[in-house]
Amino acid sequence: MEQPVDLHQRENTAPAESTDPPPRMTRQQILTLISVASVNFSSMICYSILGPFFPNEAVKKGASQTVVGLIFGCYAICNLIGSLILGKYIVEIGAKFMLIMGLFVSSICTILFGLLDRVPAGPAFITLCFLVRSIDALGFAAAMTSSFAMTAKIFPNNVATVLGSLEMFTGLGLILGPPVGGWFYQSFGYEVPFLLLGCVLLLMVPFNIYVLPKIDADPSKDSFFRLLTHVKIVLICYVIFTLSAGLGFLDATLSLFAIEKFNLSPGYVGLIMLGLSLPYCLASPLMGYFTDKYPVTRSWFMVTGGMATAIGFCLLGPVPFLHIPSQLWLLVVMLGLIGFSLGMTALPTFPEIITCAFERGFDDGLSTLGMVSGLFGAVWSLGMFYGPIVGGLITQHLSFEWAAAVQGGLAFLAAFFLAVYYLFQRPQRQSVCEDGRRQTDENTPLLNE
C-alpha cells in the first residue's frame, strides 16, 4: 500500500476547472476515498458530541458562559496555529504520517476528556479542559490538513465533487454526534460518550496505516503571505471565517438557549441539531458535483449561500427588532436553512483558492495544496475561536437573539463584499478578452501564404 503518488500527473492541467466527466477511479483512489471518509466521520463525531451536554456540565463544574466559550475557543486557536505550521511543513513531515499521528492524538485526548468529570470542580477542571482540548486540536489539525491536501492531490480534476462526497461523512458525524452524545449522556453519564467514540477513533489508526498511500513531494519556497496578497483569496477567507464563526457560536450557545427557552432535555437538543447537519450532509454531494461541472457558478454559490446564512441567523432567535416570538419550529427551520446554505457556500471555497493559487504561479504540487489546506483550516479555526467567545459574551451580556443577529451580519458582509468584487472584476475580464481578440485580429495576415 506504500505506492507513491506521481507528482507530475497533473502537469499542464487546470485543477478544479475541468468540465469533463471524471474518469473511472483506480483501486488506490477508492481506498484513499474510504480512508479519508473514515477520518472525516470519526473526527467529526468525536468533535460534535460536546454540543448537547458539555456546556451545561461545565456550568455545574463552576465554569461561566464566557469560560465555556473560551474552552471551545481554545480548541480553535490551537487548530489555527497547528494548521498553519503543519500546512507549511506537510512535505517534510509526510502527509500520511501527519494524518496517522493526528488520529492517534485525537483519540487519546477524546478518551481523556471523558475522564474529566472525576476532576474537582473549579480551576482544576477548567485548566484540564483547556489542556486536553488544546492538544486534541493539534491532532485534529494534523488529520484534517493532511486529508484535505491528499484529497486535492489524488483527485485533481474533481476536487469539489470528491470533497462534497466526503462532506456526507463529515455531516454524518455531525448528525450522529449530538443525538448519540446526548442519549449516551442521559443513559450512562458523562464518561461513556467520550470513551466509546475515542476508542472508535483509535481503531481508525491501523486501518489508515494500511490503506493510505505514500505521497512523495518536494518542498516549495512559496509562503502563506504570498497566498494572502491576492484580494480574491482574502475575500474567500473571510467567507470561510463567517461560516465557522457561526458554527462555533451555535456549538457554544444553542444547547443552553434551547434548554432554557423551550425546557428541552439534552437528548432533544441533540435532535434539534439535526436540523443543521442533515441539510448540509444531503446538499454537499450535489453542490460539489455542480460546482465542478460548472466552475463559473462557484462565485455566485458563495454569494447566494452567504445571503441565505444571514437570513437564517437573523430569524434563528429571531432578532428582537423584528418582534417575532421565539418558536421551536422556527428555530429548526432556520437551522435547516443555515445547514443548506453552509454547503452552498463552503464547498466552492477550497477549489476556488486552489485554482487562484495555481493561476498566480504557485507550484502544482503537494506543498501548495498543503498550504491551501493549512490556510483553510487556520481561517476556519479563527472563526471557531471568534464564534464561541464573542457569541458567548454577547449572549451573556445581551441575549442569544442579538448574538445570532451579529453572526448574520457577518455573513451578509462576506456575501456583499464578494458580490462587489465579482461585479467589479467582470468588466475588467471582458476588457482584457476584447483587447486580446483585437490584438489577434490585427496580427492576422490578410492573405495566407
From TrEMBL:
Coiled coil: none annotated. Keywords: Membrane, Transmembrane, Transmembrane helix, Transport. Residues 1-24 are annotated as: Disordered. Pfam families: MFS_1. The keyword Membrane applies. Residues 32-426 form the Major facilitator superfamily (MFS) profile domain. It is found in: Membrane. The chain crosses the membrane at residues 30-50, 62-85, 97-116, 122-143, 155-176, 188-212, 233-259, 265-288, 300-322, 328-347, 368-390, 402-424. GO terms for molecular function: transmembrane transporter activity. InterPro entries: MFS (IPR011701), MFS_dom (IPR020846), MFS_trans_sf (IPR036259), MFS_Vesicular_Transporter (IPR050930). GO terms for cellular component: membrane. It comes from the Eukaryota. It is a multi-pass membrane protein. Residues 1-11 have a biased composition (Basic and acidic residues). This is Major facilitator superfamily (MFS) profile domain-containing protein. The gene is SLC18B1.
